[in-house]
Amino acid sequence: MTDKPRVKSAERESPPNGPEHNPPPVAGPRRRRSRWKKFQVPTVLAALGLGLIVVAWFLYPRRAPVEGVTGAGVVITGSSPYVDNHMGDIFYSVGPARPGVTRVVVSVQLGGTGAPRGAYAQITFYSGAWVQRCSPRCGLGANVTAWPRFQRGVADAVFYVQARNYEVAANGDTAAVGFPEVDSTATHPEHLVLHYNFPSAGSYDWSAFPGGDFSKPPAAFWSETVVPGYGISGAQASARVATAVNPVVQQHDSNLTLAVGILFGIGGGALVAAVQETLRVND
């Protein structure tokens, strides 16, 4: 009996082992998406923190300091005893002439029936700044003298000072006005009227310097008395700087500063959280 040949079943060959035969799996879209999800939270936190800090930086209230205001000096000398005995009101006015130049007017009024023919007042102006020109004509410099004649009982001297904001400064929060020192040869008290071109003066609290009149903006008025018997000239009003605050703006700046502090705190916390989340993902 003949034996039948046995047919061997074909065995499946196992794939060879080794790194060259088993390449690492290629990262597909799902793997890249999962990696983005890992860094999504730190990225959002970092962007939020930086955004809040930038917003806080721009919202922080910044105001230029109020400085450089000093009272000027004015010396008024009458041309005769009659002028000294009849000097009445003195007007001191400060306002813009053109960009970078301030116009200062000093006026002297006589009481009584009028000034004798040829009467004048010698007005010396100690400005503390450069005087470009004046009327009547006088020399140039920081200390100049004009000799205006009385016309209809009034003698006017006009000085053009090289300064943009002369004797007036404000930043919305605080303000300052320089009151001049006035010396006069008058033999009796004189009424001194101070006039400044200051449109927003009425929005400030001048309680430390009462007597201001802000009912006719842009003009702001103060009045003082030139008292006789002081100084070498016979009558004097002292120089000083009047300061004031705007309570509404101060409260606004305080609220804004508080909000800025909160934004900085939240932004900084978000950046710290972003760093912590990044370290956690890399672990």
Q: Please, could you describe this protein's structure?
A:
This protein has 283 residues and is α+β, with helices and mostly antiparallel strands. The protein folds into two domains: 173 residues, no CATH class; 30 residues. The strands form two sheets. Strands 1-4-6-3-2-10-11-12-9 form a nine-stranded mixed barrel. The longest helix is centred in the last third of the chain and has 36 residues. The model has no long low-confidence stretch (mean pLDDT 82).
Count of helical segments?
Answer: 3
**Average predicted local confidence, pLDDT:** 82
Determine Rg (CA atoms, Å).
41 Å
Beta-strand percentage range: 25-35%
Distance between the termini: 75 Å
Number of strands: 13
* Biggest sheet character: 9 strands, mixed, barrel
Helix content: 25-40%
Q: What structural class do you assign from the helix and strand content? A: alpha+beta
Q: Order of strands across the widest beta sheet?
A: 1-4-6-3-2-10-11-12-9
User: Can you write the helix and strand succession as a string?
Assistant: HEHEEEEEEEEEEEEH
List the helices and strands and how they pair.
Blueprint: H1 29-59, E1 73-78, H2 81-86, E2 87-98, E3 101-110, E4 121-135, E5 141-146, E6 154-161, E7 168-170, E8 174-179, E9 181-184, E10 190-197, E11 219-228, E12 235-237, E13 240-245, H3 247-282
Parallel strand pairs: 1-9, 2-10
Antiparallel strand pairs: 1-4, 2-3, 3-6, 4-5, 4-6, 7-8, 8-13, 9-12, 10-11, 11-12
Helix pairs in contact: 1-3
